[in-house]
Write a sequence for this structure.
């Protein structure tokens, strides 16, 4: 193995200035990940887990520390290059699926490919293939409002997958779903992981976190390794 | 490089589609916003088209009255203040000249059989004029060469004068006192029935007498204003040149003793004036465009705020700042362009209606359409720039926080 792992965070600090007072949101966070892992970051609200997700997802930059993804140093990148990394390496899945209401399922899935400059026909082909993969072959041309919550979240997962990213980054992916649908989504995550997808999932729900093969706890901006599975 | 160009092309296509979606999704608001641009463009197009229609009809009425004539105005110098009868003869013998009509005009007090009329317009004309307007005389005879040469005290009078002085009486052979001098009425004519601009320039006087007689009454014996009718097929520049060659020696080659004006040059001046006027009006109308542009800017700023989450999401999905900026820029461009196209349409309809009311011909001016469309597109880009930039600079974290 090379010296540099697939994903590595070293002594990441993040400070915010709030009302003239610095707030340490993340404190010396170190985390390494191999390709194909399924990691849960488990923590209560206010623990800094969303900030961590933003930094992993290259939406934010750390105040101090090093973050390398596939050998690339993120601190040195400017806004445009970060957008490029998001486009190629990261697949975001949000809590409320966040689909654009006026676009069909297929068009929503195509969205990241538009920004990656993929042509019309190729986009459609790839979006259809992914939607089929998440089990929505018969819902391609439905609007989000015509889909159930679980189906919407599947579209969101398809959208995250379509660019073939290095990491799937999910923020409370089941937060808005009932338990049964949540379980189904988790099933899908496990299947994807079995296909050697790297997944980082952020949640406050111990039961959901338990689906991952590895769980870390984040409390008050500090990470403690929680070992594998079942709390 | 090619790949980047291709990806930009894909972006533009998608942006146009998304913009149309968004415009359609906010029908009422989009319509109200593009109404501003539409009104501005309507005003510009209607003004330009109407003015060009009017100037077209002015041009054609100039053509009706003034083709083949030059106007000669003599101011003279200390030695020679005008043209004598001999000079006129010399001029009318020129190759490019068909004939001359001296214009000696005055107003005089006219009396007859106890009635008096003041401020009657009296004109001295020659036999050539009678020849040109041979259909004019309705009774009696026209003036002729003998009248010119003899300075006869004869006159032809208009129908109005007949009605005033000779109601129910045959006027021919009667004596009319013009400025106290007795003239024998030789003929009677109808006033020109043609209206419009032509009548103002070539309107007929009430009493026409031989120009030689008129000059005699005036006391100078010299003509200062005449219309030169060019021979058929002669260009006005050539005729002007020949006239100048003939006139220069008469005035000792002194400058500014006379001016020769062709109808073309009057028309040109007129067209220039119309052009300036339409530019001015279009300038005023374009204030409406600026107001419309501000409306678009306002709507785009609101849209950016409303769609914060969407922008954040797109950024998270890998959209570059320039791609976000392009999307909003294209949206305001499309909005403005739609307004512009609608404005062109209503503008043309409005100017068609105006031309019908004024009674001039309706001309579709391609330049005006291009100007309207181009201007509206420019307004969209200009006023969309700041909102689009704002959108592109939104921090995706702040944008997503509202999830």
């Amino acid at each position: 193995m090379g010296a540099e792992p697939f994903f590595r965070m070293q002594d990441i600090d993040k400070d915010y200035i709030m009302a003239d007072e610095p707030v340490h949101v993340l404190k010396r966070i170190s985390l390494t990940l191999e390709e194909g892992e399924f990691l849960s970051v488990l923590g209560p609200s206010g623990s800094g887990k969303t900030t961590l997700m933003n930094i992993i997802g290259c939406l934010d930059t750390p105040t101090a520390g090093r973050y390398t993804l596939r050998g690339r140093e993120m601190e040195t990148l400017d806004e445009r290059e970060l957008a490029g990394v998001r486009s190629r390496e990261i697949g975001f899945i949000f809590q409320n699926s966040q689909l654009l209401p006026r676009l069909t399922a297929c068009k929503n899935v195509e969205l990241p490919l538009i920004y990656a400059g993929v042509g019309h026909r190729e986009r459609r082909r790839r979006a259809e293939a992914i939607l089929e993969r998440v089990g929505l072959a018969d819902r391609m041309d439905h609007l989000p409002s015509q889909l159930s919550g679980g189906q919407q979240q599947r579209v969101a997962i398809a959208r995250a997958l379509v660019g073939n990213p290095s990491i799937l980054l999910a923020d409370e992916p089941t937060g808005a779903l009932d338990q049964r649908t949540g379980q189904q989504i988790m099933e899908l995550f496990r299947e994807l992981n079995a296909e050697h997808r790297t997944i980082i999932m952020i949640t406050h729900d111990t039961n959901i976190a338990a689906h991952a093969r590895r769980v870390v706890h984040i409390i008050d901006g500090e990470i403690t390794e929680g070992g594998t599975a079942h709390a | 490089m090619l790949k980047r160009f291709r990806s930009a092309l894909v972006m533009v296509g998608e942006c146009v589609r998304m913009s149309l979606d968004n415009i359609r999704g906010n029908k009422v608001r989009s319509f109200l916003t593009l109404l501003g641009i539409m009104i501005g463009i309507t005003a510009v197009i209607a003004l330009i088209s109407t003015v060009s229609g009017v100037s077209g009809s002015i041009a054609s009425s100039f053509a009706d009255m003034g083709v083949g004539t030059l106007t000669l105005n003599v101011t003279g110098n200390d030695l020679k203040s005008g043209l004598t009868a001999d000079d006129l003869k010399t001029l009318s013998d020129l190759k490019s000249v068909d004939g001359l009509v001296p214009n000696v005009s005055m107003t005089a007090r006219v009396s007859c059989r106890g009635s008096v009329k003041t401020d009657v317009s009296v004109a001295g004309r020659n036999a050539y004029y009678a020849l040109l307007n041979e259909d004019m005389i309705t009774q009696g005879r026209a003036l002729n060469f003998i009248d010119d040469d003899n300075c006869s005290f004869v006159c032809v009078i208009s129908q109005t004068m007949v009605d005033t002085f000779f109601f129910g009486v045959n006027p021919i052979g009667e004596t009319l006192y013009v400025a106290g001098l007795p003239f024998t009425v030789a003929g009677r004519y109808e006033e020109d029935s043609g209206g419009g601009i032509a009548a103002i320039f070539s309107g007929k006087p009430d009493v026409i007498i031989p120009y030689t007689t008129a000059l005699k009454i005036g006391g100078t014996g010299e003509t200062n204003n005449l219309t030169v009718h060019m021979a058929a097929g002669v260009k006005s520049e050539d005729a002007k040149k020949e006239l100048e060659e003939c006139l220069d020696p008469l005035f000792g080659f002194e400058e500014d003793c006379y001016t020769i004006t062709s109808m073309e040059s009057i028309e040109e001046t007129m067209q220039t004036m119309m052009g300036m006027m339409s530019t001015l009006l279009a300038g005023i109308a374009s204030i409406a465009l600026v107001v419309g542009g501000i409306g678009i800017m306002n709507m785009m700023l609101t849209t950016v705020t409303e769609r914060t989450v969407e922008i954040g999401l797109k950024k998270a999905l890998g959209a570059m700042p320039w791609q976000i900026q392009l999307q909003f820029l294209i949206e305001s461009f499309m909005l403005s362009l739609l307004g512009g196209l609608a404005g062109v349409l209503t503008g043309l309809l409005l100017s068609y209606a105006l031309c019908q009311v004024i009674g001039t011909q309706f001309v579709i001016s391609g330049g005006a359409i291009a100007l309207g469309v181009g201007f509206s597109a420019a307004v969209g880009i200009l006023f969309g720039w700041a909102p689009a930039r704002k959108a592109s600079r939104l921090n995706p974290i702040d944008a997503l926080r509202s999830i």
The first strand of chain A starts at residue 7 and ends at 18.
